[in-house]
Design the sequence.
């Protein structure tokens, strides 16, 4: 058996080759048995793929999104884990507390320490959709947190993640890093998911969990979140770009044997490819702006491109099913997996419905 | 279970953490709760089957009720039509070329892409509305939807053009790509940013579009505002005039030694200054801002380079317009100060035209309404097979400082201004007369002056 790392260095950092060689053989097991691909997640870090969009990486958001797209093209559950980790890296890169950045950024950006983002609740809270679910009271040297966050991804008992807490005495929102090994903290696996069972997703229970000050990302998340939100959302574009690409490839592949009937379908791969190219170009244009932009205008643009990507993902996966026919229903078929993955693009925060609510507000302003 | 309880209809409880709904009628048989188990009878060690919290995190279910808002849907994409003409920008230039093109060709498919709502309004009136007692919305002649319908244009409002893909002939937006056969850039211009020394934290506003103007008026309309205007060019002088007429306390700081120095003769600057000063505008020429701190909520304070100090409500930066060339630069079109065009208003890509404040023709940028109207007709002719050409000659500029209005024909070449009387100046380049400036009552003679100048040329 060939050793995984016994490949010459020249080709190894290319995310497409990396995903084809090391992720593709795992994709069906990840989907059907819920395998969390921790080894592959570390491999991405070994090749510097979590460190492209940071200040040290020259804020190369386009490069970060491209790597995530290559992973998502093979397995979007793992692409989602990739995004979780990229998002966490992005928060730490922007942490207001220098001690937090100094202590945590390097291990996370290198992938030695893996982790997720529990920010869905915080982002929805800022958009007036949900109450904050965790309360953290100020104590000497840090905060004491209580409550439950449902469904934080890319987690394991030795991982970390970021979340937003309500400090009830001051009514401030605090954003901090949580170490899953901390006393009083527990991960609970209750529900079973489709499409993303291998994403290391757990309910997070806090019982008097002490969060020291050198884990605080921002003592005032209401001011912090607008600065990082455009990058947070745009990074997600790796998922739809990869899924749409994979769906088009399925259609192109099917046409070799079924062009004579598939030509009667409404959606055709060449039109979808044109729209995918448009989408990629728009993402790359915005990728050059998100590191420094915090205004509503830029966020509106990012939400629009994110919504467009959701709609295109749904169209592309539906089309792939129709082009593939009954073969798409095989339990190990990538086609029905893409269909389930594409719906996740449309429902994960910010879901299509959240985006439209926020756009209605921004466009009325 | 008591009799009284069983008469109560079964209720539902929501898990606030994950959204699971506990229905008393159904119970949670897998979790040991038989159908019909009342919420209060659930033991404390029972946990939510989906996320593991206890019953303490459940609340009685109140169903969300919401009328569907009118803007819940995203606007549909325009149909894919590779033969269409696309206009980027819905300012005066964009609408002028849409109107001229529709007149020249009733059938053509036209798509307009704009980052704002597309409202059609005369922009020069932003600097006279307050003094006339008009609200920002009074200036709108037609909202974007109505103006688009009138001209048979498909409007993509609230949509920013991010890139021009010339190879594939598509404009990339966050809402998808838009194909074009011909593209017209009406990108406008932005106020040049004010370089502030270190230590300054205040961000002055610039008023370049209706949305900025709404923000300005909402800040000052409550009463008498104290306003600092940085820049004594055309826009700075017009705002100083308008806001003092509207009853606000205006201070104007200009870096050079007189107002409108690049446009009008010394004598006209002095006359304008005297009229503005009489209306209580405090004018500091030859001065710069050394330090600016504050914000719109709490007010601003500024220090001048002569040690003078200003404190007030709002700061407007009016340092002059810089053509918006970013999109053209990224597309590899030829730009210099503006987007460089030929006499057909074509850019260095023959499929792409440009109009208005973003345009540079023979080294000159003319960000004035009359220029863009002429340009609109030439683009419409060019796209429909006509052969009209733009000559780039200056038009008369009307400066709407109502306390001392001015009409100016910019000189073409270097030369000297000669004063005819207290309100009239003529510019000579050598022995050739190539410009004029009329002030106050003499503005009424501008048509005659144009004819006279035309006769000389």
Sequence:
């Amino acid at each position: 058996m060939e050793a995984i790392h016994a490949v010459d260095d020249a080709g190894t950092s290319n995310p497409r080759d990396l995903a084809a060689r090391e992720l593709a053989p795992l994709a069906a097991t990840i989907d059907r048995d819920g395998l969390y691909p921790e080894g592959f997640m570390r491999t991405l870090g070994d090749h510097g793929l979590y460190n492209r969009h940071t200040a040290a990486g020259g804020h190369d958001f386009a490069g970060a999104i491209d790597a995530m797209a290559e992973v998502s093209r093979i397995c979007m559950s793992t692409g989602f884990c990739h995004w979780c980790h990229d998002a966490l890296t992005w928060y730490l890169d922007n942490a207001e507390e220098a001690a937090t950045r100094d202590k945590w950024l390097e291990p996370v950006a290198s992938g030695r320490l893996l982790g997720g983002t529990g920010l869905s609740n915080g982002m929805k809270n800022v958009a007036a959709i949900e109450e904050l679910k965790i309360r953290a009271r100020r104590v000497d040297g840090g905060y004491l947190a209580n409550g439950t966050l449902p469904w934080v991804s890319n987690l394991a008992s030795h991982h970390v993640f970021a979340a937003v807490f309500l400090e009830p005495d001051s009514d401030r929102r605090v954003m901090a890093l949580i170490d899953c090994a901390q006393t009083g903290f527990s991960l609970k696996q209750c529900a079973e998911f489709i499409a993303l069972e291998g994403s290391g997703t757990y309910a997070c229970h806090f019982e008097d969990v002490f969060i020291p000050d050198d884990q605080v990302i921002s003592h005032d998340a209401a001011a912090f979140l607008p600065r990082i939100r455009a990058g947070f959302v745009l990074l997600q574009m790796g998922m739809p770009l990869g899924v749409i690409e994979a769906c088009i490839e399925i259609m192109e592949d099917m046409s070799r044997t079924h062009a004579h009937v598939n030509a009667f379908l409404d959606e055709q791969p060449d039109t979808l490819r044109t729209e995918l190219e448009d989408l990629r170009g728009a993402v790359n244009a915005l990728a050059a702006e998100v590191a420094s932009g915090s205004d509503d205008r830029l966020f509106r643009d990012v939400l629009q491109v994110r919504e467009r990507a959701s709609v295109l993902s749904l169209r592309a996966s539906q089309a792939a099913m129709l082009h593939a026919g009954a073969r798409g229903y095989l339990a190990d078929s990538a086609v029905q997996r893409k269909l389930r993955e594409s719906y996740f693009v449309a429902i994960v925060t910010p879901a299509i419905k959240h985006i439209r609510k926020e756009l209605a507000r921004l466009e009325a302003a | 279970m008591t009799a009284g309880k069983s008469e109560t209809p079964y209720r539902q409880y929501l898990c606030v953490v994950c959204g699971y709904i506990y229905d008393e009628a159904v119970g949670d048989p897998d979790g040991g709760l038989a159908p019909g188990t009342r919420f209060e009878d659930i033991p404390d060690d029972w946990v939510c089957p989906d996320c593991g919290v206890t019953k303490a995190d459940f609340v009685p279910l109140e169903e969300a009720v919401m009328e569907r808002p009118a803007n819940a849907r995203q606007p549909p994409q325009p149909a894919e039509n590779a033969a269409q003409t696309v206009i980027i920008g819905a300012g005066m230039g964009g609408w002028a070329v849409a109107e001229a093109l529709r007149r020249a060709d009733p059938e053509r498919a036209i798509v307009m892409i704009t980052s704002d709502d597309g409202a059609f309004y005369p922009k020069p009136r932003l600097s006279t509305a307050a003094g006339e007692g008009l609200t920002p919305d009074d200036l709108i002649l037609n909202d974007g939807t109505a103006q688009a319908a009138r001209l048979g244009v498909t409007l993509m409002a609230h949509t920013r053009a991010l890139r021009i893909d010339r190879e594939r002939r598509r404009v990339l937006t966050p809402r998808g790509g838009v194909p074009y056969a011909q593209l017209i850039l009406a990108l406008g211009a932005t106020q040049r940013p004010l370089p502030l020394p270190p230590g300054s934290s205040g961000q002055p506003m610039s008023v370049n579009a209706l949305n900025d103007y709404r923000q300005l008026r909402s800040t000052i309309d409550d009463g008498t505002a104290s306003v600092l205007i940085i820049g004594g060019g055309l826009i700075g002088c017009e705002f100083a005039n308008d806001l003092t007429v509207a009853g606000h306390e205006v201070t104007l700081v200009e870096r050079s030694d007189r107002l409108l120095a690049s446009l009008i003769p010394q004598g006209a600057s002095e006359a304008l200054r005297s009229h503005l000063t009489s209306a209580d505008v405090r004018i500091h020429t030859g001065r710069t801002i050394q330090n600016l701190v504050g914000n719109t909520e709490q007010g601003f304070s500024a220090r001048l380079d002569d040690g003078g100090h200003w404190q007030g409500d709002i700061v407007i930066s009016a340092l002059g317009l810089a053509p918006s060339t970013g999109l053209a630069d990224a597309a590899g079109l030829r730009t210099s100060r503006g987007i460089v065009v030929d006499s057909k208003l074509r850019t260095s890509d023959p499929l792409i035209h440009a109009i208005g404040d973003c345009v540079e023709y023979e080294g000159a940028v003319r960000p004035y309404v009359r220029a863009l109207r002429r340009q609109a007709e030439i683009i419409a002719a060019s796209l429909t097979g006509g052969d009209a050409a733009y000559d780039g000659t200056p038009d008369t500029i009307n400066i709407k400082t109502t306390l001392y209005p001015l009409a100016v024909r910019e000189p073409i070449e270097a030369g000297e201004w000669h004063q005819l009387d207290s309100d009239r100046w003529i510019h000579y380049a050598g022995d050739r007369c190539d410009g004029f400036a009329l002030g106050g009552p003499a503005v009424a003679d501008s048509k005659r002056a144009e004819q006279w100048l035309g006769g000389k040329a």
Q: What stands out?
A: The mean pLDDT of chain B is 93.
